[in-house]
Each structure stands twice: as C-alpha cells, then as structure tokens.
Specification:
Blueprint: E1 2-4, H1 16-20, E2 25-27, H2 30-33, E3 42-44, H3 53-56, E4 65-67, E5 88-90, E6 111-113, H4 122-129, E7 137-139, E8 160-162, E9 183-185, H5 194-201, E10 209-211, E11 232-234, H6 247-250, E12 255-257, H7 265-273, E13 277-279
Parallel strand pairs: 2-3, 3-4, 4-5, 5-6, 6-7, 7-8, 8-9, 9-10, 10-11, 11-12, 12-13
Antiparallel strand pairs: 1-2
Length: 280
C-alpha cells in the first residue's frame, strides 16, 4: 500500500527530498514496498506489520524517510545502518534500551526522533548518535529525562534540539560545545531552572529560536538578555503578566509569541511599540 506523503512535522523541518516535494509517495505496508524497493523513498510502518523488516531494509537503497514509531520495539534493526540515503528516522514510542552500534554508520542520517522513550539508556544512545557525521536535528521529547548526560556536548553538528516535556532541572555545561545549535525546545519543562539554563544558552554563538511554552513561568530571568542572537521567542501559555524587552536584544528579535498569558492592555501596547512581531 502507498499513499501521498504530506508530513507536517510539529517540531522540526522535513529534510531532503521531502522538503522539496511534499507529494512524494510513502509506503505504509512492507510487502507492497518490497515489490519495487528501489523506487521507495519513504516508508511509514508505524501502523502496520514489521515482520521480516531486519532482512528487508537493505533492499531499500533509495530510502530517505523511515518511521518505526510506536512499534514496541525492544531491539532496533541494525540493518538501518545499511540504508545509504536515509535522512530521517523516527523511533519514538518504543521499548528498546540501546541503539545498535552499527547505526553510527548511517552516514546520511540528518534527523532522528526518539520521543517517549522511557527505557532508553540516554548515555549510550548519545554516544552512538555522536558518531553520526550528518546529524543536525534530534528530538528527545517526553523521555522522562531528569539529568541530561554531558555526552550531549559531543553532538557538535546539532542545529535543532528538542528537550520538551522532560523533568530536566539544569542544562549541562557540555552544551557549550554545541556551537551550531540554532533552535532549542524547552517547552513543558516545568522543573527547569531557567536562569541556569540561560547561563548556558547565552554563550552559544548562533542560538536564534527558543521555545519556553507551557513552563508555568511568571517572569523571565534578567540573563535572558544574554541571548544576543535570538530572533524568535515562544512563551505561550505561561503566567507572565508583565514583560520588558531589552532594547539591544529587540534589534535582533523578530517574533514573540505570548498568547495565553494574562497580560493587560497596557503591557500589550508596550510590546506593540517595540517593533517586534507579537502574537497575543
């Protein structure tokens, strides 16, 4: 079976051929895909059988997109490493502990989702991912992460990192090595020491997008002004009544989302005068 691919990724950008042509065909049934495997560019098995997948994967030499989410996998197929063109991999909602060491051979893999992975050995997983030469986007959303392993600092090519929905208290200093990080999601991280987190993020040279939605925030720490390159700030559905924008920062800031905050008309009028695009 195949259907028209129309993927709206809520947290990250579709990559490769999918970004250029959203009407490519994606197969949702392994048997159908194996009838002509060289033509298969996308494979979404999140709602179908994966029996025989380990042996079948090497036949998909042009596969760029693979979705194996919510399959209750206790072991990730090591043959994923034999997909020379694979760019996007979704392993969210499974039961595995470790990633196969061979996965680090997936030289074209640019984006991986590991959301809702409650049993995953985060340290081992990050060690494997750190050896992926093309990886630029990683999602670890809702993984019950309390302490982010310092190993995260080894993923120096990351441009987008999603840590939303975790009980993280602090960000490790090793994240200072993520000099290419452009966007980070910390939304729903209600236990986060934001002042500490900003002390790390404020030292990153190219951080432009910050998500802090649903964090029960009443105010922003003063060191928010240290994010000199920030262009987009998302603060929706917090408890912020008043908000001042640093004049120097406002020169860079292009978009501010404060919808769902209890701001009165006076505060809204002030924000409108800053020249920043505001969403109330």
């Amino acid at each position: 079976m195949k259907r028209t691919l129309l993927i709206f990724l809520a947290t990250m950008t579709v990559i490769g051929a999918f970004a250029q042509n959203p009407n490519l065909s994606i197969y949702t049934d392994l048997r159908s895909a194996l009838k002509n495997p060289k033509k298969v560019v996308g494979l979404d098995l999140s709602h179908s059988s994966i029996e025989g997948l380990e042996k079948a994967l090497p036949f998909f030499v042009n596969l760029e997109y693979l979705n194996l989410s919510d399959k209750r996998l206790t072991k990730v197929p090591s043959s994923i490493s034999e997909l020379p063109k694979l760019q996007f991999l979704d392993l969210s909602g499974n039961d595995f502990v470790l990633l196969p060491e061979q996965l680090s051979n997936a030289s074209s893999l640019r984006e991986i989702r590991l959301d809702r992975q409650l049993k995953m050995d985060k340290k081992q997983v990050l060690e494997v991912l750190a050896r992926l030469p093309a990886l630029t986007a990683l999602s670890l959303r809702s993984d019950s992460i309390q302490t982010l392993p310092p190993t995260i600092g080894k993923l120096t090519g990351l441009q987008s990192l999603n840590l939303g929905g975790n009980p993280i208290a602090e960000l490790p200093e090793s994240m200072l090595k993520l000099e290419n990080l452009n966007e980070i999601y910390l939304d729903g991280d209600t236990k986060l020491d934001l002042k500490q987190a900003l002390s790390v993020l404020g030292k990153l040279p190219d951080l432009q997008v910050l998500h802090l939605e649903d964090n029960q925030l009443k105010a922003l720490p003063e060191n928010m002004r240290d994010l000199k390159q920030l262009k987009e700030l998302y603060l929706a559905r917090n408890s912020i009544r008043s908000l001042k924008i640093d004049l120097e920062q406002s020169k860079q800031l292009d978009y501010l989302d404060v919808q769902g905050n209890p701001m009165n008309n006076e505060v809204q009028q002030y924000l409108n005068r800053t020249g920043v695009r505001i969403k109330f």
